[in-house]
Design brief:
By secondary structure, the chain is α/β, with parallel strands linked by helices. Helix content is 53%, strand content 11%. The strands form 4 sheets. It has a 5-stranded parallel sheet with strand order 2-5-8-1-9, sandwiched between helices.
């Protein structure tokens, strides 16, 4: 019987900015990392799916369908930022998180709000460039290996005696060159096989690399001249001759450097810029954090003038405008904006009416209960208890949390949040760090003494944290 040939299935990489998952599948994916907040998850899942739907529309109507921006209201540590961040990872879209408080009104000292879109473009370019690098990786690796061979086995210089032509001695010189070429070819093939087998990875070689000048960080930042500063740096770098320097590196490190250089030669940066602009325009996500800190209550006077000015500066970008970047003009009409704030002292209605109207979807994230804290400790893929277990396992120490200990930690987190400031799930970080302080400190010594496991129960939790949790004055400083 003839043997069937194995069919190699080639999986196509996910297209940047495109997500085929249904809203229910998106929520299920978010559930792996974020506990509760079903209403907020539902809203962002619908917003994401609407982007997919808009791509299917006819061109004459597609541009009129703009994304519905979302305003998340909830105290710190309940998952606002995490929802937006996981959403961007899910869709492989350019995502930028900015604090509204870092911007000030035009004319004051502070960052220009248009720098948000420039930052988004930088991320989009990086994403597209990474994808293009993957596409040319095989060819770049092949070219890098050839360059490595040239370094390890240089081509012989052809020697010619100027008097040989006069006295007819050219044949001998030609024969010598041919012999040298044959030896070189044999040497190259031998080295090529050794390289392919990975037997030369740790050998040190001299490599000439480009000497990248350090960027002029901070020279133009914090002003409206930021984009001019970027363009000026690019212009100077293109005019100035490229400097090189010699480095002693291993063959493995040299291959990575050469692969990167070869990939850059194979990538068309103009095409990258064009693709990145489309990606940022159609799939970009901007997350405004601390939006409540620029809300103005009552009549505006003093520093509140600047706060209202920030809102008015943000407004054109959210409404839809064109921002000039070094990669070309970027339209913000179809960028999804998600704003979030605790709104303890201010209300969403304290934002200027024009800005309120640009965030039609409002979601209130609920404060975390004891049951939520228990789930946060154990259920997500990046759960805190899992992190601590893995950290201490590196020392050779197995740590086990009893179910009653998890319940006790969750109860304490809820109580301390109720009694003092509500900082949500971030309270668990302080509690666990204080709880495991002694174990973390003594772990190497415990393993040396032969103790390889520690069990944490409710009694241990009470012993370490009860007095601090009870004493309100002390808990304000420690927890």
């Amino acid at each position: 019987m003839a043997r069937k040939k194995a069919v190699k299935v080639v999986t196509q990489p996910q297209e940047l900015g495109v997500n085929e998952q249904t809203p229910r599948e998106i929520v299920e994916e978010l559930n792996k990392y974020i506990v509760g907040q079903d209403e907020a998850k539902k809203s962002v899942a619908i917003a994401l799916r609407n982007r997919w739907r808009s791509r299917k529309l006819a061109e004459d109507i597609r541009d009129d369908v703009i994304p519905k921006n979302i305003l998340m209201i909830g105290s710190t540590g309940v998952g606002k930022t995490e929802i937006a961040r996981r959403l961007a990872k899910l869709v492989k879209a350019p995502f930028v998180k900015v604090e509204a408080t870092k911007f000030t009104e035009v004319g004051y000292v502070g960052r220009d709000v248009e720098s948000i879109i420039r930052d988004l473009m930088q991320i989009a370019v990086r994403m597209v460039r990474r994808q293009k690098t993957e596409e040319v990786k095989a060819k770049a690796t092949e070219n890098a290996n050839e360059r490595l061979l040239d370094i390890l086995v240089p081509e012989p210089k052809r020697t010619q005696n100027p008097l040989s032509k006069l006295f007819g001695g050219g044949n001998e010189s030609e024969e010598e060159n041919n012999e040298e070429q044959t030896d070189t070819n044999a040497g190259r093939e031998y080295v090529r096989k050794r390289l392919a087998a990975g037997k030369m990875e740790d050998e040190i070689i001299d490599l000439e690399v480009a000497d990248h000048a350090k960027p002029m960080v901070g020279m133009f930042s914090g002003s409206s001249l930021e984009s001019m500063g970027d363009n000026l740096q690019d212009m100077i770098s293109s005019v100035m001759p490229k400097r090189t320097r010699r480095r002693k590196v291993t063959v493995a490190a040299a291959r990575k450097i050469l692969e990167q250089e070869e990939a850059e030669k194979l990538i068309d940066m103009e095409e990258v810029a064009e693709t990145a602009v489309k990606l940022a325009e159609r799939s970009g996500i901007v997350f405004f954090d601390e939006i409540d800190k620029v809300a103005v209550k009552g009549s505006s006077a003093g520093p509140d003038v600047s706060r209202e000015g920030v809102q008015r500066d943000i407004l054109p970008i959210v409404e839809g405008s064109t921002v000039m970047t070094k990669y070309g003009p970027v339209k913000t009409d179809h960028i999804l904006f998600i704003a979030a704030g605790a709104f303890h002292t201010a209300k969403p209605s304290d934002l200027i009416p024009e800005l309120q109207g640009r965030f039609p979807i409002r979601v209130e994230l609920k404060s975390l209960k004891k049951e939520d804290f228990e789930k946060i400790l154990t259920e997500p893929q990046n759960a805190l208890i899992k992190q601590y277990k893995e950290l201490l396992k590196t020392e050779g120490l197995e740590i086990e949390f009893e179910s009653d200990a998890i319940g006790r930690i969750a109860e304490m987190a809820y109580d301390v949040n109720e009694q003092s400031e509500d900082i949500g799930a971030r309270r668990l970080h302080t509690l666990l760090e204080k709880l495991l302080e002694e174990v973390s400190f003594d772990a190497p010594d415990m393993v040396k003494e032969g103790k390889t496991s520690v069990s944490i129960n409710a009694e241990y939790v009470d012993e370490r944290l009860k007095e601090i949790a009870k004493n309100r004055d002390l808990s304000q400083f420690i927890l």
